[in-house]
Amino acid sequence: MYINRIFGYITAILTLAGCSGITDTGTDWFADYDTMITGTPRHMQYGRPSDGYGTSDASGDAHNMAVLLPLSGDNATIGQTIRTSIETAVLQSAPQNLSVSFYDSSVNLPDTIKSILATDSDIIIGPVFSDNVRTLRESKPTELPVISFTSDASAVGNGIMTMALMPTNSIEAIIREMTSDEVKQFIILAPNTPSGRMMSGAAKQVAENYELPLVGIFYYTEHDSESIKDAARTAAMNTARTAAHTRARQVLSDILTNETLTPAEETSLNLQLEKLEKTETLGHVPYDAVLFLGNGDDTKSLASFLRYYDVSARDARFYGTTMWDGSDITGDFTMSGAKFATLPNINQNFASLYEQVSGTQPNRLATFGYDAANMAIGMIYSNKSNAAYLLDPSGYMGTDGLFRLKPNGTSERSLRIVQLDGSGTPREIKSAQTNFIKPIYGLTPDNIESADAFGLETPGIDPDDYIRIPEHLSDKYRSKTIGAHITKKSNATPSQVVAIISTDDTTTITSTEYQPTKLETVKRSLIEEYEVEE
């Protein structure tokens, strides 16, 4: 079954001359938004008009829906995916007096937009990319509603909305989870791109709203192993921690070589030295969580290098965003325990239908396109105003769960939290919210500034804090603090200490400040697919 052929045939039969025009007038087309009450979301209907459509109007004026997608060129696959889902929804649900016309955004966009506007369409679905959305926004009348697929909040508005998941939704959802996990302070590792810096800015703002201290932002070049390695090394304070480790071993060795010691003192120093030989760094990082804002592949590399530089799961928990969704990271056993925010599972009825039509499993663009078409049909045949239907604050339950459109053009989607276990199928640990009666998000996506990188705030590492030497030698072998960037006192719990044990009958030497912890042997040759040169 070739859906394009079928759709073309049916469209030719159903297309009628004329159209209804835009029902809303004026520049403030969503003026009645503030009077609407948030309640139970409407479930999208599949295969028949929903109760939100109102009268079918099959004998009334003809209606027109324009669809603007990249149907040729490098992005034709994206456009075809969305087109298939829109055609599926129209074949299921559209009354016979609806005409649907597809336009290629890849060919002479200004002229294509003029052609669309000349048809006096009820609504436009698309475009996909932010530059195309901006071009359309500058050309169309405000009262003409548009449902696009861009995730760029700065491109929407002026009657243009988006079905896409806003990155801020994912960031706020996972930071909220971090606060539930009682994270004390965290760092960000993000790609050095405009979107990466913008996402970091969003995370910084959300962290401030949730009073969760952000102590460092580190950028890297996407898909560049050397840049990724450098970012991980810096974030791990590797230079300072390695230098502190070297100094501590030197002190212990010098005392054992040059000083006269009691048997108990000599035993204690040898045991400390033996423990230090099993590690390559000393001291702790001033954070207990890492938020990765890049894709799954880059995150796997970053996490691997962090472990290489002795920042393990016992030191900091790992968190991510929807950028991990569908990536190989979900099957990486070394990432077990990491959490990220993601959309609910795709509606199985739609997934089965889409597979029957296209022979492939639907991705998120397909689900967005399907829901966009159903919303457009619902708006056209509803007895409500365009704004009252599209911007219903109660939202809709679609193929990806709960969502709603906002007057500023952005969207809100309810997300769930999942945890990796190496199986390839993340385990859901917190389900997505099912209504908007209790607000889900506090961050406004169109009011975010990009964030600059900044280094760790740390009092540095004093090697003397991690070893115990005879008191009468403390002045002679005093060390300097290494790697200090003292802007505030770190609240993180030290991740590495040395236990001091005597072999005689005296009590083990202990301290309330320094507690023993199990140390793991570092195997620097096992760094997945990356080779690291010292």
Name its key features.
five-stranded parallel beta sheet; 13% strand; seven-stranded mixed beta sheet; 16 strands; alpha/beta; 534 residues; 13 helices; disordered N terminus
Structure description:
By secondary structure, the chain is an alpha/beta fold. It has helices spanning 3-14, 76-93, 109-118, 130-139, 167-180, 194-209, 225-235, 238-258, 263-276, 296-308, 348-358, 364-380, 386-390, and strands at residues 42-43, 63-69, 98-104, 123-125, 146-148, 160-162, 186-191, 214-220, 289-292, 317-320, 339-342, 396-398, 401-405, 411-413, 416-419, 427-430. Strands 8-7-9-10-11-15-16 form a seven-stranded mixed sheet, with helices on both faces. Helix 1 packs across helix 2 (76-93) and helix 8 runs antiparallel to helix 9 (263-276). It is elongated, with a radius of gyration of 29 Å.
Q: By helix and strand content, what is the structural category?
A: alpha/beta
Estimated helix fraction: 25-40%
Number of strands: 16
Poorly predicted tracts of residues: 1-27, 47-56, 486-534
Strand content range: 5-15%
Counting DSSP H or I runs of 4 or more residues, the number of helices is 13
Query: What's the gyration radius in Å?
Result: 29 Å
The mean pLDDT is: 84
Secondary-structure element order, N to C:
HEEHEHEHEEHEHEHHHEHEEHHHEEEEE
Shape: elongated
State the strand order across the main sheet.
8-7-9-10-11-15-16
| Main sheet attributes: strand count, strand direction, barrel closure | 7 strands, mixed
* Ends apart, CA distance between termini: 58 Å
